[in-house]
Design goal:
D-Maltodextrin-Binding Protein, domain 2; 2 domains
Length: about 325
């Protein structure tokens, strides 16, 4: 009799826990959710983040607010979320920066894989190598020859040391033999502004931010970083087809939560994000702006992050960047 009572109590306890977990998932979110972004407002990652935040707000009935935690190539945002309460109300929209930083820095206050719970890979996208119109080069071979003929005189901008545009440009420098000065900025927007102003000659920049400037005649594109041409800019040849076969690199944006976030909350976010990324209106707008929509499950983002860390470590060695 006592054994049966104990069994009944155990079953009731387990049922109660399952009920509470289900109730938590049903109730989440009950207040504002903050989405930390690695870079300042106005860039490609920020633009994407705001669209996702708006859709999540509509779908889940609570505000999802973007917070730009810029600095240190994304590390400030990563640290902020890694230390946040694991309750689903502070999330991170990491880009390729999170795996690059893991490969470049020996000592971080967080672990790119262990400190976060993956939710979804949202999108990825290639970029354009753009020049100021005053630069007397209209193709990549012409630009390489110009740089080599003027050693130390031309420069390029990036969102910061160790960011994806920095490493992508250094990959090109290594393969082409160019020696062009790197000028790091605190984010893609100020880096682009100084390229438009002519203070620097070149930049690797996302389609969404560079195309309006190209249409206005303030920039010109001479190459695409991915293996295939961009559907949105079909007349711009790839870097690979201009003498550098195999050159292929892109940036991505995902969604993660602090380690310890309840599984039901993570599952609810994963399901809703995957549904949002399948909405035709959003998918079309993102495509038009140069993004490749993904909307994967959590496992695919986890696999991507695991694969990229050793890859970026190898790239950093190839371009002469020493981990610190």
């Amino acid at each position: 009799m006592m054994l049966q009572s104990a069994r009944n109590a155990l079953v009731a306890g387990v049922a109660g826990l399952l009920f509470i977990a289900g109730a938590n998932a049903a109730e989440y979110p009950e207040r504002v959710v903050r989405l930390a972004v690695e870079f300042p407002a106005g860039g490609a990652t920020d633009s994407m983040a705001r669209r996702i935040a708006s859709k999540l707000s509509e779908r889940l009935g609570q505000q999802f607010v973007v917070e730009n935690r810029a600095g240190a190539g994304g590390i400030i945002a990563h640290e902020y979320v890694a230390k946040a309460a694991p309750d689903g109300y502070t999330l991170l929209l990491p880009s390729t920066a999170i795996t690059i930083n893991a490969s470049l820095h020996k000592k971080l206050s967080y672990d790119a894989q262990e400190s976060f719970v993956p939710i979804s890979l949202l999108a990825d996208w290639g970029a354009l190598l753009v020049l100021h119109p005053s630069i007397p080069a209209n193709t990549l071979p012409e630009f390489v020859r110009l740089v080599k003929a003027n050693p130390g005189k031309l420069s390029y901008s990036s969102a910061g040391t160790g960011t994806w545009p920095h490493l992508a440009m250094e990959m090109l420098n290594g393969r082409s033999g160019m020696k062009i000065l790197h000028v790091p900025y605190k984010g893609a927007v100020p880096a682009l502004q100084d390229t438009i102003a002519g203070f620097v000659a070149a930049k690797i920049d996302s389609y969404i931010t560079s195309m309006p400037q190209m249409k206005a005649g303030k920039l010109k594109a001479i190459g695409v970083t991915t293996a295939a041409r961009m559907p949105q800019a079909p007349n711009v040849p790839t870097i690979a087809e201009q003498g550098y076969p195999g050159f292929d690199t892109a940036i991505w944006l995902g969604l993660v939560a602090p380690k310890g976030t309840p599984r039901d909350v993570v599952a609810k976010l994963e399901q809703n994000v995957m549904a949002i990324m399948k909405e035709k209106d959003l998918a079309q707008r993102l495509h038009d702006d140069g993004y490749n929509v993904r909307g994967t499950n959590a496992a695919e983002l986890a696999a991507l992050m695991k694969k990229e860390i050793p890859q970026w470590r190898q790239v950093s060695r190839e371009v002469g960047i020493t981990p610190n």
